[in-house]
Request: fold
Amino acid sequence: MDAKHRVVIVGGGFGGLYTAQALRKTPVEVTLIDRRNFHLFQPLLYQVATGALSPANIASPLRGLLSRQRNARVLMGEVVGFDLDRRQVHIAGADGDAAVPYDSLIVATGARHHYFNHPEWEKDAPGLKTIEDATDMRRRILYAFEAAELTADPKAREAWLTFVVVGAGPTGVELAGAVGEVAHRTLRNDFRSIQPARARILLLEGADRVLGAYVPSLSRKAAAALGRLGVTVQTGAVVTDVKADRVTFRRGDQTEVLPARTVLWAAGVDASPLGKVLAAATGAETDRAGRVTVLPDLSLPGRPEVFVIGDLANYPYQTGKPLPGVAQVAMQQGRYVADSIARRLRGEPPVKFHYKDRGSMATIGASQAVADLGWTRFNGRLAWLAWLFIHLIFLVEFENRLLVLVQWAYNYFTRDRSARLITGAPPPSPGERGASAP
Reply:
């Protein structure tokens, strides 16, 4: 009996997990490798960052998800390189590197934060891609109110109660709206020396409107909804510096230095470093964000057995520019690659990948959202309910769906956020990097 075709998937996000699951009935051996032991539902990370959900609500162990799939196994490890000639993936382990052989390789390692050639900003303006990012952001947001309550200095208090979100795409809009809810609703009766509702929340966007990928009418409605939550939107604002106690930005010819102790980054992404490793080995091109330009079947030039999908892939054949970095793209590409492998094993010719745009949604607070489904556009409570339903459906485990539904119902009726825990050390004081604030 011939050995089964070996499929190795690097990355347990939407693309990697959906590829593995779509191969469950294909006569192959699937190995899923990830440096974490869980699949993370990234679209709800901002709710962890603002205390609405706990990390376990939006994460599911990969071994549990694939435990009943007999042709799949999971390896937890850091991929450090590829030997494309020998068809091996190298993983760093406690006892040295391990080599995992493959016949087909799918790389779906996603993206990370991009600070526009200023990596030093990351320590003072965290992004939102991992559970650790979300809990760090939650710590910073909630600690700011505690520090403001403690200090008697009016200027220091104002800086602690100033929150700046950089980038007004869906993540920035959702994050700013959630911080507005925390300040104006959740914490309104919790303090004695400060009034949380007097917090200043700024959303800075370099373009001329929020949600630039949406039609202008929905952008205007989103900006109005943010305003009702106490968020001040500043468009045409380009950040030029970030420090522990201030952010500097330029609007036209004017430069403003704003005292702020909490800066949150949602302005850009950069592809996983593994993309450049693959590109160098195969001769594939990478774009400015580090995404690998793939062929129409999502494979790499000269390496038909190697596929790149999700946020790591630049697929320009449909719109002339990369597909959006959303979960639906990764899911559809994962299913497509699984089907392509099955077709190859049956000796059938490949077909070109085609992305079916299901639309876009962004929520603003507890009862407002905007939705662009292509064939219809709407906003308000109906869009918010649609957003809730769709996100519940795509949570990968029934238990998580139930937990999130109950938590959302509780949050909606009480305006409370029960997961607002401050964990880890408080942010260091300016000029005392590495030391704890008093």
Notes: The domain at 127-202+210-233+360-414 is CATH 3.50.50 (FAD/NAD(P)-binding domain).
